[in-house]
Amino acid sequence: MEDGLAVQDLSKLEIDKLTPLTAEVISRQATINCGTIGHVAHGKSTLVKALSGVDTAKFKRERERNNTIELGYANAKLYKCSNTDCPRPACYRAYSSDKEDHPLCEVRLICNSLLTEIGSQDAVSRRPIIEG
């Protein structure tokens, strides 16, 4: 493991067998992109923050007005507990993209399996802001 991530050894890596679900790929980059679209103040930024731990409101004006002015982007890793007896939905967890590949399940205290890494885009709420 390199800093908790799957090892990428180019001499052993079979490039023709890589897929978006291969551990070496999802360990380091988002393989699913998810855009959030909705009306002003309906929780798009809150959803992205809940999944990724990243606050996409980067500018003072965004915080003051409580709406997204610039497109926000954050990655998150999705995990499922390896123990089949771990109850749903507690067996699923989302962490920021810098989380190691196999953190302990908070319920069963055994390793979680990395399902995928998603990239979340927090869209701008109002048309005039999008157009310029």
TrEMBL record:
InterPro entries, alphabetized: eIF2G, P-loop_NTPase
Keyword terms of this UniProt record: GTP-binding, Nucleotide-binding, Protein biosynthesis
UniProt xrefs under Gene3D superfamilies: P-loop containing nucleotide triphosphate hydrolases (3.40.50.300)
BP terms from Gene Ontology: formation of translation preinitiation complex
GO cellular component, one term: eukaryotic translation initiation factor 2 complex
Source organism, top-level taxon: Eukaryota
GO molecular function, one term: tRNA binding
Name of this chain's protein: Tr-type G domain-containing protein
